[in-house]
Amino acid sequence: MDRRKFLGLGMVALALVPATSLHALDFRKEKPDTWTAQTVDDAIKALYGATATESKDITLKAPKVASNGGAIPVTIKTSIDAKTVAMFQDANPESAVAVWTVPEGGIVNYTTKIKMKKSGTITVIVEDKAGKLHSVKQTLEVALGGCEG
Predict the structure, then answer these.
(1) Hey, which of 112, 116, 119, 121 would disulfide with 91, CB 3.0 to 4.6 Å?
(2) What angle do CA 96, 98, 101 make, to 5 degrees?
(3) Model's pTM, two decimal places?
């Protein structure tokens, strides 16, 4: 196969992959009030329209004391057959941090870093395939300096 044909087929393949694998919702467009809500409860209601029940099937791991509020490592794991996973915090003016769409058969084992200006609570909501909401919370302290620490 010559080089031009190979590159042409490669470009066609790249063009088709995103079109067939994209199914994630843009929650900023779909649920804009979620991103301006100033309390965790208001953000959850704006996103899901309901409240969640606490679940032992979700693991939320973050440090008890964060030395740098600008880069707090957070890990979320669950065995729940999830449709979406959302993270909120009550230390910053806007409560919503992130919302992930979980692909069919996807495994929820996410690690990210978040910013918190001061000590507070991280809340994670897992929406299962039936639409039921499950939650877990963890309180942590941010050492002096907050996001600038």
Answers:
(1) 116
(2) 130
(3) 0.80
Residues 33-43: b if buried by 16+ CB within 10 A, e if exposed: ebbebeebebb
Tell me the pLDDT tens digit for each residue of 79-117.
999 999 999 999 999 999 999 999 999 999 999 999 998
Q: What is the largest CA-CA distance in the chain?
A: 62
Assess contact for 62 and 119: CB atoms under 8 A.
no
What are the phi and psi torsion angles at 40 (to 5°)? -60, -45
Query: How many separate domains does the chain show?
Result: 1
Q: For tokens 């992930």, what's the residue?
A: 100
Given a contact cutoff of 8 angstroms between Cβ atoms, the answer to whether 121 and 62 are in contact is no
Enumerate the H helices of the chain as residue ranges. 3-21, 27-30, 40-48
